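hey
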């Protein structure tokens, strides 16, 4: 794809602008030439993951004392620019940080952080997040996976599904949520556990045959009499669900940044094509029916950018109001992901028959976009959270 500068809606500072330029150059020169080959193989290219690691992208939001940079805005910039070239690699980075290392950095003990974070933030290892279950879907607060107390710790039995980065050679640990009891109000008591790869009874199933994100790693996970010690509890016993809701807020902004990359790519590809493709002796971009659709793509890109980086700014503010950040995260996620799906449809329409051919990137973006509305909380969940933020007593 030809590099196109249509201007930015959100005014990043000089350091972030320089960082964006560096990541964009890396993505378009080092990754873009291989993206179609990697997606055709339906596997995560570890060579690309290692290049992301060499650029320091896995440590962008992590604590500085473990090798991170502590800057959530930079992470969003990186995800956006990687996602502009390939959504599969974008979600790999997003999940590795937002759902992989971030919960350990936020809720882990000093010993857990020391054990895992240096390798995770350096990209030498990947962590996965086991929350969704086959019977549960959005109802993650009532897991069927159970952890039972023993004399030496806990025994976990259950299954998880759709787990990103769970089956790679670099995967070192999978964080699992399990029911450990029942609260006084009858709700499930949920606890999070760190389960290292290779633990007896932990089995990663075959990779899914997905409709999109071909070059990302996604597997089901089963746990059969998996034994873990007390020092493998992440955070407090019984607080696992709340911890992961907090982690999901961060992840929603990251997914919105990934969606923003998709919108921008669709806009730029469609504008470039409309300027060169001729019908009846004129470029199709000269016709209002096409030009107005391209204008809509530009509006989506600008609006999504403002929402993503306003939410990231709230996250970076150490004194931020958690409820305001949660609302900003849901708004950014809802608007950017639904706009990404619309953007791929518009761009495919501009390309006509070519938009249905796999030799054009538009077809790949079209495949990849739909899951953005589902992962990290569906659009319906985001509307529910936004409505609650307005003070409405919705259930």
């Amino acid at each position: 794809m030809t590099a196109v500068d249509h201007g930015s809606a959100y005014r990043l500072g000089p350091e972030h602008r320089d960082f964006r330029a560096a990541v964009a150059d890396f993505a378009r020169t080092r990754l873009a030439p291989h993206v179609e080959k990697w997606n055709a193989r339906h596997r995560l290219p570890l060579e690309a993951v290692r290049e992301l690691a060499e650029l320091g992208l896995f440590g962008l939001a992590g604590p500085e004392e473990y090798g991170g940079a502590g800057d959530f805005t930079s992470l969003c910039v990186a995800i956006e620019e990687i996602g502009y070239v390939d959504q599969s690699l974008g979600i790999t980075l997003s999940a590795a940080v937002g759902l992989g290392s971030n919960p350990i950095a936020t809720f882990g003990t000093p010993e857990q952080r020391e054990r895992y974070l240096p390798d995770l933030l350096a990209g030498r290892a990947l962590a996965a997040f086991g929350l969704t279950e086959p019977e549960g879907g959005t109802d993650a607060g009532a897991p069927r996976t159970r952890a039972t107390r023993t004399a030496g710790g806990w025994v976990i039995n259950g299954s998880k599904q759709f787990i990103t980065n769970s089956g790679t050679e670099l995967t070192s640990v999978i964080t699992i949520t399990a029911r450990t009891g029942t609260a006084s109000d009858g709700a499930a008591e949920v606890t999070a556990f760190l389960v290292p790869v290779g633990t007896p009874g932990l089995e990663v199933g075959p990779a899914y045959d997905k409709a999109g994100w071909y070059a990302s790693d996604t597997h089901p996970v089963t746990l059969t009499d998996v034994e873990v010690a007390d020092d493998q509890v992440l955070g407090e016993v019984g607080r696992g669900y709340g911890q992961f809701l907090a982690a999901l807020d961060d992840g929603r902004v990251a997914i919105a940044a990934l969606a923003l990359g998709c919108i921008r790519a669709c806009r730029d590809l469609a504008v470039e094509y409309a300027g060169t493709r001729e019908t009846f002796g004129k470029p199709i971009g000269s016709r209002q029916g096409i030009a107005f659709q391209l204008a809509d793509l530009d509006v989506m890109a600008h609006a999504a950018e403002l929402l993503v980086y306003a939410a990231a700014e709230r996250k970076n503010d150490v004194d931020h109001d958690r409820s305001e950040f949660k609302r900003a995260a849901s708004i950014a996620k809802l608007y950017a992901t639904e706009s990404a799906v619309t953007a791929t449809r518009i761009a495919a329409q501009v390309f006509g028959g070519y938009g249905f051919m796999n030799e054009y990137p538009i077809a790949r973006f079209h495949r990849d976009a739909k899951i953005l509305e589902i992962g990290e909380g569906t659009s319906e969940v985001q509307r529910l959270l936004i409505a609650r933020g307005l003070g409405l007593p919705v259930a």
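The beta strands are 126-130, 146-149, 153-164, 171-182, 188-196, 202-204, 218-229, 233-234, 278-279, 282-283. The first strand starts at residue 126 and ends at 130.
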